[in-house]
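REVIEWER CHECKLIST
Item 1: Sequence provided? yes
Item 2: Single chain? yes
Item 3: Sequence as submitted:
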Amino acid sequence: MISCTVCGVREAFYARLYSGEKLCTRCFLESIEDKVRAVIARHRMFEFNDRIAVAVSGGKDSLSLLHILARIERDFPNASLYAITVDEGIEGYRDEAIEIASENCERLGVRHFIISFKELYGYALDDIVKRIRHLESGLTPCSYCGVLRRRALNVLARRINATKIATAHNLDDEIQTFMLNIIHGDTSRMSRTGPAFDEELPNLIPRVKPLCEVLEKETTLYAYLRGIRFQENPCPYASEALRNDVRNMLNRLEEKHPGIKYTIYRSAEKIREALREKIPKIKLSRCKVCGEPTVGEICQVCQLLQGI
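Item 4: Structure as written out by the authors:
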């Protein structure tokens, strides 16, 4: 029997190659929860009286985050925890995810709120995809979905008077975004991403990422070990995104060089801090079409919708 290197008592079942640890089930679960606690504390993500809206998609990451925050909510006795879900309108995919998300919320005693693209924009994502197939914009379904979903989360969080939106971006998501920003040369966006966006901007709810230092595969393992039911089928549009190729590249690197994902993450943090000193803060105005916050005259959401 190979003993757990943390407790030294129970049998190890998981080898964490990047750290050299061999962990039993209990120590693995505790290590994930402790890592999330440490990230929350380091970046001062929550205040004692926050109304926290957890963005729940029905996948492994968001449901793991919801379960973890429900477990550690006692650290913030006056805080309130809610779940918010965006129904993009993807036939045969999103309905199952919403059902699973609602089931988990009921299990945890967390109130669940849902908003749809159809309600907010007049189009389901499937409708948008049919329309953009005829355009030569070079934009993928994910390009539209990402922008529209971010707006929808903000609108719904405002409706329930949330003070923070907690998203389930894991470490893999963070370094993929960093690499994509490098590919596109988007230094402005690079400086604004990170574990916590706490700059106070009118009508924008601050966002935090408590899972930002947890590997995607460890989030998945956490969900399985906790018996969390989640949607396992990937989004049917995901394979069209450049992010998918970046993900595969980074996974291959991690196989050959364990720990390189954390190395890239730390590098991204250093670059982000250096950029913040040079790139001016965002100045927001109101979109002339919808009235939502924007850096230009017309927000990106309205530009996309006008284009279809």
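Item 5: Key structural point noted by reviewer: The chain has one domain: 43-279.
Item 6: Recommendation: ____
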